[in-house]
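Section 3.1: Structural characterization of target chains.
Under the original work plan, the team committed to producing a structural model for every single-chain target entering the pipeline before any wet-lab resources were allocated. The record below documents one such target. The sequence was received from the expression subgroup and is listed exactly as submitted; it comprises 156 residues.
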Amino acid sequence: MSTNEAKQNSQNSERPLGVRVIKPHQFDANTPQTPGMQRVAAVSRELAGSQGIWAGVTVVDPHMASGKHHHGELETVIYVVSGHGRIRWGDNLEFQEDVNPGDFIYVPPFVPHQEINPANEPSQWVIVRNSQDPIVVNLEPLDSKQQKANDATHKF
């Protein structure tokens, strides 16, 4: 297809095959959620026609932590766009590392994890997964010590 044909097609009601640009006002909040954070889809089958990849944005409010969760068989990549945060992981969330803008985080399949924003400003993270399946398995704290750790990072 020539450049002129592509330009003409993009002006028609039917979109041409190829690159898709999804604007923030088009993001879709109708995706599984975890307490303490808000996910929105940006690249999905519905928004972009993607087949094997999903991407979205999450914002973790100041002094908040997500609930403990995993994404089943999916691999997840997180890119920290803004703010300062912390990621905890493991069966008892026994591991943690601080993250800053520009950091990438890789979360393997079935690994329980929690995103935390201990700072005074929101933290925005881009999420990419290797499937269209919206798998989010929210987990309960394992014991009272874990509950106290979660409560310490959540607003009341």
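The first strand starts at residue 38 and ends at 43.
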